[in-house]
């Protein structure tokens, strides 16, 4: 079975964006690999906190990433150390090289990543880097490129500022929404009380709405970036 690569900016984006789909693909026997480009911690503690506290938070986030990945059935987790909330200061090429390394290592046919229109700059830089790393040159393994939505980033964009998320690809996650919620609970520190979009209730509500959009109990929505049907 062909491999799948999920590329995200921060630990927890994978669960919020495509956790139900990752669990489903893993259940179907696909090898799901995850690349996380920043630690999700750094910029929130630039001032007023000791390095030890930052390191402790980074460690807890890493533990959560590992636990959530086990729940979803992820085969490998790779992390890079690009500056959190400052990935727009890094050249796209440098980030793309890191993505290219993961593609060379796993030879995925499917890549899932952030949407271009997210409010979060790290998400946008990640998207750009994946596009660069997935240029469809001869022999490139990726034939399906998909972009997901991440709560409190994709829907928080304002009109006219960036491309709109208009899903064109849906995955029925009725059988894996429970696993997705379990994986989300590993990131308890990142969650906020309902009605914040970064809550279990919001994840459940979005899955129900995306499901209703296409006539199933629960779904995740994607925009198709590119699909190659090979000869
Ligand atoms: Zn993020």
In words, what does this structure look like?
The structure is a single chain. With 231 residues, the chain is α/β, with parallel strands linked by helices. It has one domain: LmbE-like (Rossmann fold). A seven-stranded mixed β-sheet has the order 3-2-1-4-5-7-6, sandwiched between helices. Helix 1 packs across helix 5, helix 2 runs antiparallel to helix 5 and helix 5 runs antiparallel to helix 6. The mean pLDDT is 95. Bound molecules: zinc ion (ZN). The site of zinc ion has 6 residues, from loops.
The CATH homologous superfamily is named: LmbE-like
Oligomer: single chain
Instruction: Note the gap between the termini.
Output: 18 Å
Shape: globular
How much is the average pLDDT?
Answer: 95
The total beta strand count reads: 7
Order of helices and strands: EHEHEHEHEEHHE
CATH level-3 fold name: Rossmann fold
Tally of domains: 1
The number of helical elements comes to 6
Strand order of the largest sheet: 3-2-1-4-5-7-6
Largest sheet: 7 strands, mixed
